[in-house]
């Protein structure tokens, strides 16, 4: 089931090269019989190579998946498979393409730590958020224990540090 947090129709399948080990473990355990993933891996040897190198203990699973697919596929069949895979991992596509979307979706679960939109300290636990917020310099706020990020975006560090969602 797709979360529809991001439209994957125009995304390149090579965005999967930004996934991390724990994502690939899920593919190996839960999708070893998935035909659309098998098609996508068969037709994207770079992604297959990346999956096998990042998760060598599942290399055989990924290789078998790709090997189970006929080489006679149309471009339309391949693209359909790519989109289906990306839809099935819609939240992960947000993670690699535009992590700021999480902030809109998860804002309620992070309250009251976030007083506006982008929590800078949220970024420290995740490399994708660090990349997304690259160049953003936190400033001390006039309020103790609060940092001001940009355009009035503030984060209460005390509340944030107690958040089980983040740590």
How much helicity do the residues have?
A: 40-55%
Number of domain units: 2
Q: How large a portion of the residues is in β-strands, by DSSP E?
A: under 5%
Strands of the widest sheet, in order across it, are: 1-2-3
Overall residue-averaged pLDDT value: 72
What structural class do helix, strand and pairing data support? mainly alpha
How many runs of DSSP E, i.e. beta strands? 3
Report a brief summary of the structure.
The chain is mainly alpha-helical and 167 residues long.
Topology of this protein?
Elements: H1 21-30, H2 35-43, H3 45-54, H4 59-67, H5 75-88, H6 90-97, H7 100-110, H8 127-132, E1 139-140, E2 146-148, E3 154-156, H9 157-161
Helix pairs in contact: 2-4, 2-5, 3-4
How would you characterize the overall build of this protein?
With 167 residues, the protein is mainly alpha-helical. Helix content is 49%, strand content 5%. The protein has helices at 21-30, 35-43, 45-54, 59-67, 75-88, 90-97, 100-110, 127-132, 157-161; strands spanning 139-140, 146-148, 154-156. Strands 1-2-3 form a three-stranded antiparallel β-sheet. The longest helix has 14 residues, at 75-88. It is globular. The model is unreliable at 108-138 and 163-167 (pLDDT under 50).
């Amino acid at each position: 089931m797709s979360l529809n947090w991001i439209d994957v129709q125009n995304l390149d399948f090579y965005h999967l090269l930004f996934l991390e080990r724990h994502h690939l473990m899920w593919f190996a355990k839960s999708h070893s019989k998935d035909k659309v993933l098998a098609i996508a891996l068969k037709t994207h040897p770079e992604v297959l190579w990346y999956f096998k190198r990042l998760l060598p203990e599942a290399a055989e699973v990924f290789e078998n998946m790709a090997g189970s697919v006929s080489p006679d596929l149309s471009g339309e069949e391949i693209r359909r498979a790519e989109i289906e895979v990306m839809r099935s991992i819609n939240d992960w596509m947000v993670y690699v393409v535009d992590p700021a979307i999480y902030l809109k979706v998860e804002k309620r679960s992070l309250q009251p730590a976030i007083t506006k939109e982008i929590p800078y300290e949220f970024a420290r636990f995740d490399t994708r958020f660090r990349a997304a917020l690259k160049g953003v310099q936190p400033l001390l706020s006039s309020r103790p224990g609060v940092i001001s990020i940009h355009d009035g975006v503030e984060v209460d560090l005390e509340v944030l540090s107690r958040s089980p969602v983040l740590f």
